[in-house]
Amino acid sequence: MKKVQICCIIDDDSIFVYGTKRIIKEVNFAESVLVYSNGQEALEGLAKISTSKEALPDVIFLDLNMPIMNGWEFLDEFKNCQNNRSKKIVIYIISSSVDPRDLERVKDYDEVDTYILKPITPDDLSKILGAKVEN
Amino acid sequence: MKTLTVDFLFKESPNAIAIVDTKLNFINYSNQWLNNFSLNKTDITNKPFFDNIIETPQVFKNAVKNSILGKEESNLGEKFILSNGDVKWLKWKILPANNEVNGFNGAVIFLSDITIDKKEIELLHKAEEVARIGCWEIDLINGQVYWTKATKDIHEVSLDFEPNLEEGINFYKKGIHRDNISHLVSLAITEGKPFETELIIITAKGNEVWVCSKGEVEMLNGKAIRLVGTFQDIDERKKVQLAHQEISERFKITAQTAQIETWEYNIIENELKWDKEMYRIFDIEENHFSGAFEAWLSTIHPDDKERILSATQEAIEGIKDFDEEFRIKHQNGSIRHIRGLSQTIKDSNGKPIKITGANRDITELRSAEFKLARSAKSFAESFEHSAIGMALVATDGSWIKVNHSLCKSLGYSSSEFLKLTLQDITHPDDLNSDLSLLKEVTRGIRDSYQIEKRYIHKTGNLIHVILTVTSVREIDGKVSHFISQILDISDRIENEKKLNSLVDVTKSQNESLMNFAHIVSHNLRSHSTNMTMLTRFLNEEEDEDERKNLNKMFTSATESLSETIAHLNDVVQFKTGALEKLQSISVLNTINQITNSINVLLEEQNAIVKIDVSKTHFVNAVPAYLESIFLNILTNALKYSSTERTPIIEIKSKIKKDKIQITFSDNGQGIDLNRHGDKIFGMYKTFHKHKDAKGIGLFITKNQIESMNGNIYIESIVDKGTTMYIELNPG
């Protein structure tokens, strides 16, 4: 299993972030983890990385319900900036929402690979790695 | 002896003979002479001739005188009018006598009075002329034909025309006439059959004349020797007869077509004659009918009998001609309406002898009239009493007649309506389509149309209707007027509108409910999944410090869960039973109350609160809600105050339309409404980093206000300030 270099978590729930980080370590999912607490922070952060030509994350775990800028708004902004990036960033939406409208809306975004329902499990991460190998 | 015999013969001769000498004295005379021509019956021998005879014409006297001189005189018969006016026809033969031959000198006079015969012939001729009857005779032995003057006149030939058989036949018009007479004549000749026939001849002048030719045969030894007959000009009579026949035929056909039948009642003999149509109309078998007046009377409807009887009686008595309408009963019981006329014919004394009449079966006519009247009445009734508005409209759009329902619908009285046109009270936007459809009906492009349109009520309101228009046409096909049916659907439209708005409200409420459910489930799930995760870690973790950390996080998660559930309760609460707790509350009092309760907070931030609320303003609200609303807004204003300036919060109230409006204006951070406008009142929608921002406060505030039938909206400029407007029902 090939590890992800940089994994980015965008979520405002600190407990969830702690838990996810722990599981990533358990499964040896990624080398390093980047955390932003809302969409706004994430955009600003990623932009900074991009301009400074540092390494961008390979994978983003994105929550939907966040203050200031939620997951959808982040995706809309992110789409616009994606064009000039050479590297492909895979986004996974991780949410507690079972609203079918949210599930539908996911299909509008090509950047989103899958919708993962909270709580995230080690199996979920393994699957991601497995898929990555096939890619 | 000889002389005695001769004398006897002479005396008894049937002729009137007189012998005179040269001195014109009677020598001898026959008894007949004495009877006919003597003045008195005495012996007149040797008496002078002219003194002893009745008056004779001069011609005769001259003839006698001449005979004495030796001249023979004869006259075959001539008419004389004597001085006393008498008409005499005389015939004479006078022979002179001389001594040598006859033994005496003188004359022998044979005189005959043929007046009577001649008179008869004269009268006969006169009769012939007057009656235009001539006589003819064909002598079959020598083939001679004799025509009287009248016969010649009828043929328009001259008096000296000498006819023969063939010519006579050829006078008859070629074709059936000539053939007919030829046939009859030859039949007479061969079989001795007499004939009588009416035929046309062409006169010598070329005129067509109807004649009646009669003939009889005189036979001898079984063979016809002579034909004798009369020949009458019946032209006038025949022409009249033919004309009459023609008219008669025509009338028969007319009567049959018009179903008029005629009858004739002979009063004297009480005999009633009917033509075929009468039997048919009165539904009686020809041979069942006795022909008596009573039989006819029995067919009449009992209710009409008396009237008809008296009218008939008046006609019979010649007082008044019959002119009545009455009903008769057929054998099968059906009733027919009859129209009868009659005319009484009187004799020369004025006594009625015959009545001729005509009857006509007008049942169909009466029935149609009745149906028409009934139909018209039926229409008038339905028109007036219809629950739907109905109107008769002229082709120019003016109202001819309106019913009660329509007047009620549109608020005009009937008389007011008639002064208007449909153009006057139709909504201008609907006028064109209505008029163009009306034109199509007028032109025959369509029979009727149905549209939804609006009329303008007398008060100015709009009345929604469904209009159906049909046309009524004259016999020539042109439109006479329109019938409009106007169904008032205003109520229906009103209800539709209400229903639609209700559906909208329900839809939005459903949506908000859906949202609410999802949001709540999401939040509950977040916390519960966190707890699940932490529980697992706790089970695995051995490091004490780490365990402590985990426990802290676990506690936090449970707290969050509880909070969410509490919020859930709050939100659910205002959805039920709020309206029952409404009271009239003083705005000012509540403001003061809340402001006091957050005094500490206000002091902390050096905030200034300016209150400009009238004492008189009361709102219809739930006390707990009102307090909660004011508290939330004030704390928000403090929470989001600008760091650059002292917070100033202005609270005002005023009356806006039918609501009380309360405004809270602050000079804080403001909100970018473009970006977050639709999230402000949303549930769990925070867009501030503020630690106390839960995203639920304004959601609850909005719902509380709306549950009290109020409104809330917001105005804000970033970094300038925010104003919240709250509208509530006055208390």
How is this structure best described in words?
The complex is a heterodimer of chains A (135) and B (731). Chain A contains five helices and five strands; from the N terminus they run βαβαβαβαβα. Chain A has 135 residues and is an alpha/beta fold. In chain A, strands 2-1-3-4-5 form a five-stranded parallel sheet. In chain A, strand 4, helix 4 (100-106) and strand 5 form a beta-alpha-beta unit. The longest helix of chain A is centred in the first third of the chain and has 14 residues, at 14-27. The model of chain A has no long low-confidence stretch (mean pLDDT 85). Chain B has 24 helices and 27 strands. In chain B, helix 20 packs across helix 22 and helix 22 (623-639) packs antiparallel against helix 24 (697-707). Chain B starts with a helix and ends with a strand. By secondary structure, chain B is of the alpha+beta class. The A-B interface holds A 13-16, 18-19, 22, 65, 67-68, 95-99, 118-119 and B 518, 521-523, 525-526, 529-530, 532-534, 537, 553, 556-557, 684, 686-689, 693, 695.
